[in-house]
Specification:
Layout lengths: L5 H17 L3 H10 L4 H19 L1 H11 L2 H12 L5
Helix pairs in contact: 1-5, 2-5, 3-4
Length: 89
């Protein structure tokens, strides 16, 4: 499976964080990310199966990039760290 470039990975994480904050899901997302960190690979495989449905809402490229993002536990840790930071106005 392809790897996301660092700049694109960071941009995608920022978009996910911004969307979670906009939906007021920051705290539940933090709990789920930290709780299910050991299951990152299983979660990314679930996203891979759900990719056609997810692509309807996000676009095919964005859905594939989300799968790539969530398959690496380090990305999930970094996403959780970004969510813990105060929101930039």
């Amino acid at each position: 499976m392809d790897e996301l470039p660092a700049a694109r990975r960071q941009e995608l994480m920022e978009r996910v964080c911004a969307q979670l904050r906009a939906w007021n899901l920051r705290e539940p997302a933090l709990v789920l990310l930290n709780m299910h960190l050991p299951l990152a690979l299983v979660g990314s495989q679930f996203l891979l199966v759900a990719e056609p449905f997810l692509g309807i809402f996000t676009g095919e490229r964005a859905a594939r990039e989300l799968v790539w993002l969530f398959q690496d536990p380090r990305n999930i840790e970094q996403l959780a760290l970004q969510l813990e930071q105060p929101a930039e106005s």
